[in-house]
Amino acid sequence: MDTLVRIALLPGDGVGTEVMAEILPCLDWLESRGHRLEIYHLPFGAEHFLETGETLPEAAFEEIRDGFDAILFGAVGDPRIPDGRHAEEILLRLRQGLELTVNCRPCRPLWPGSRPVIDLEVYRENTEGPYCLQGSTEPDRAVDLAIHTEPAVRRLLQAAFHRAGTRGCSLTLAHKANVLKHGHGLWMRIFEELRAANPGIVARGMHADALLCALVQDPTPFGIIAADNYLGDLISDLCAAFVGGLGVAPSLSWAPHLPYRCSVLAEPVHGSAPDIAGRGQANPVGMFLSTALLCRHLGWESEAAALEGAVSLALAEGARTRDLGGTSSTAAMGAAIRAHLPR
Ligand code: GGG
């Protein structure tokens, strides 16, 4: 019998709640396959903030940190909270507070015949850089600090080298060390050290602007792309466009050094998409594929492969939400995918 896995569900805002609804039956399916889950629904998001003034209370954060194993997250962002305060205090707090340094965003074709045939994964540092939320706005200037620390950069790059070694693919570090001499200088120093320690891995640094140009021209040679928080955010969204867009892009964030019980968070790359929220138009594929990544992380390989296979089969049959040029609703797309899960 499996060990019990306690999962906190945070659907968040907008389409986050709609795509989360589609994955709930899959949690029952996982249990039907012998995995022991305890699922808790947590209300934190824009609605809860507007009603109560609470974003993610410290006690709730500590309970997640010490009492859960994993988080399934939807999306945050709401036009009624234009400064995005609740999003920072929920999602960035979880990523930073749980030290979820490594964010992996895989990009692969999802249905037969789709082009280009890429097999790349963006390894994005997930807690630092300009997303450390330190800065100031003054009358005539604005400052966003970008902090890069040796432990986080080393953890991200070690995970990226390890993954490139396991997959037998190349590793490219995106940087702007020619301009960002301090922060990206640190990245280059640790990268060169790990490159020397891993002579079997083809690894090179590329200026991020040249890398973006090369990706648009031909993404197929790239295996693993490692980047800081900011560049990784941009590069992974570009790469998602090669395989169907943000609606199908999954991500998994984890803390390889296991500082706390809760050390992994799965979430689709997309945000809350207020423009289509509440209309049943969101694509749940990113959520399904993120759940597959979580299953693989937990050692449930056959369920991970079954979820990914079910997505491919549904797409191959022609199920498509509007972002993919089809007419399926979120619920119909979810049902089409679940219909291909083995009993
Ligand atoms: N699942 C990723 C996520 O929620 N990211 C936050 C974000 O991008 N928020 C801005 C938005 O929803 O437009």
**Distance N to C terminus:** 19 Å
Q: Uncertain spans, ≥5 residues at pLDDT below 50?
A: none
The CATH superfamily of the largest domain is identified as: Isopropylmalate Dehydrogenase
Order of helices and strands: EHEHHEHEEEEHEHEHEHEEHHH
Provide a compact summary of the structure:
With 343 residues, the protein is an alpha/beta fold. It is built from 11 helices and 12 strands.
Describe this structure in words.
The chain has 343 residues and is of the alpha/beta class. The chain folds into two domains: 1-105 and 244-343, Isopropylmalate Dehydrogenase (3-Layer(aba) Sandwich), CATH 3.40.718.10; 112-243, Isopropylmalate Dehydrogenase, CATH 3.40.718. Helices cover 42% and strands 18% of the residues. It has helices at 15-32, 46-52, 58-67, 85-97, 150-167, 183-197, 208-217, 229-242, 285-297, 301-316, 330-338, and strands at 5-12, 37-41, 70-75, 102-107, 120-125, 135-137, 142-144, 171-175, 203-207, 224-227, 250-254, 264-268. The chain has a ten-stranded mixed sheet with strand order 2-1-3-12-11-4-5-10-8-9, with helices on both faces. The protein has a two-stranded antiparallel ribbon with strand order 6-7. β6 and β7 form a beta hairpin. α1 (15-32) packs across α9 (285-297), α9 (285-297) runs antiparallel to α10 (301-316) and α10 packs across α11 (330-338). The radius of gyration is 20 Å and the shape is globular. The mean pLDDT is 97.
